[in-house]
User: Which sequence fits this backbone?
């Protein structure tokens, strides 16, 4: 089973963008994937960004795939996560692409 890490922007978003992270994590779990959701690893990144990134990067290294949420390219943390993942040969999926593909298959 693939172990998927969710990467995406948090800082500056309402509720730290956690609802979007949780939505994708729930969907992937229903589909049978083992999911690492950084919104579950660090429930409040305010004032502790470095500590959360250390925890997140450690968890990322246990995965083989990264799902990048919209806006990840404008996020320092998500950009770092995607860079590490792709440098280590992990598969990168864009959330917008996976949703569009699913809609074509189901539609």
Assistant:
């Amino acid at each position: 089973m693939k172990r998927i890490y969710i990467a995406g922007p948090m800082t500056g978003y309402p509720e730290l963008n956690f609802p979007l992270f949780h939505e994708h994590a729930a969907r992937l779990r229903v589909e049978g994937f083992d999911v690492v959701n950084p919104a579950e690893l660090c429930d409040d990144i305010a004032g502790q960004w470095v500590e959360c990134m250390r925890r997140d990067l450690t968890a990322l290294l246990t995965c083989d795939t990264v799902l990048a949420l919209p806006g990840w390219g404008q996020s320092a943390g998500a950009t770092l996560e995607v860079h590490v993942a792709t440098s280590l040969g992990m598969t990168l999926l864009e959330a917008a692409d996976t949703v569009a593909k699913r809609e074509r298959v189901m539609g």
Q: What stands out?
A: The two ends are 26 Å apart (CA to CA).
